[in-house]
């Protein structure tokens, strides 16, 4: 029953930790090309949803499909090769490596293992490495900064906001279909967050067709970047629609007040 407009579909998706239902028979459609905000009080299951669709957790029941392919039982590395990538709340950059190497780690998704290993080891496949460097420069150029010139600087020399940009670029290398952004504002000031918002909008514009799921506490960011929101509470979907509509919904207001 998958329509062409739907990129990711979950049906009856359930994740249990012992007796706790972190996700409880969740049906979510993520449409092609949309920015979907996943919101809800603490502990409502947002991170669990990202983890189960990216293969970090396995589903206790239900089904997930991506681009019409059943990925419910797939391992994380296979799911990423189908075009799903993500960022994490806490930075996962290797600080001793260069910006380029960190971004090339993201390209592992689209290359076979041997090829990727050679790129990182600088052994062979110079053409492949050059292609990645070119794409990395292009992506870094989306952010209106000097980052493209810092491609071979160690990540440790970058400030917080540049590190976040590099992580986003790592998720974007190799043209994924679906990108999961887990709290892109985490650890940043209000101004920095505003900047990242503008940049996410810019990325979306320059990479036509990209679909994004964003988990975020900063409601201003959710309001500005999302086309639609799904609101979770106790692992269930309690509301969906445009941010301003869900934000005004009494059921949603009560869920947030209850926390
Ligand atoms: P959110 O991201 O909305 O804050 P989470 O998805 O992190 O919520 O958590 C949903 C529920 O599942 C919480 O009650 C949390 O304690 C529980 N949970 C999440 N991950 C685990 C885990 N690995 N083991 C046990 N319980 C977990």
Describe the structure.
The protein is of the alpha/beta class and 259 residues long. It folds into two domains: 1-83 and 177-259, P-loop containing nucleotide triphosphate hydrolases (Rossmann fold, 3-Layer(aba) Sandwich); 94-175, no CATH class. 39% of the residues lie in helices and 24% in strands. The protein contains ten helices and ten strands. Helix 3 (99-107) packs across helix 5 (126-142) and helix 3 (99-107) runs parallel beside helix 6 (160-172). It is globular. The protein starts with 5 loop residues before the first strand and ends with a helix. It binds adenosine-5'-diphosphate (ADP). Residues 17, 20, 22, 40, 42-48 line the site of adenosine-5'-diphosphate.
Question: How do the strands and helices of this protein lay out in sequence?
Answer:
Elements: E1 6-17, E2 20-31, E3 35-39, H1 46-53, E4 61-66, E5 69-70, H2 76-81, E6 84-86, H3 99-107, H4 113-121, H5 126-142, H6 160-172, E7 178-182, H7 190-206, E8 211-215, H8 219-225, E9 228-233, E10 236-241, H9 243-248, H10 250-257
Parallel strand pairs: 3-8, 3-9, 6-7, 7-8
Antiparallel strand pairs: 1-2, 1-4, 4-5, 9-10
Helix pairs in contact: 3-5, 3-6
**How confident is the prediction overall: mean pLDDT?**
88
Beta content: 15-25%
Helical content stands at: 25-40%
* Overall shape: globular
Tag the structure with descriptive keywords.
259 residues, alpha/beta, Rossmann fold, four-stranded antiparallel beta sheet, 10 helices, globular, binds adenosine-5'-diphosphate
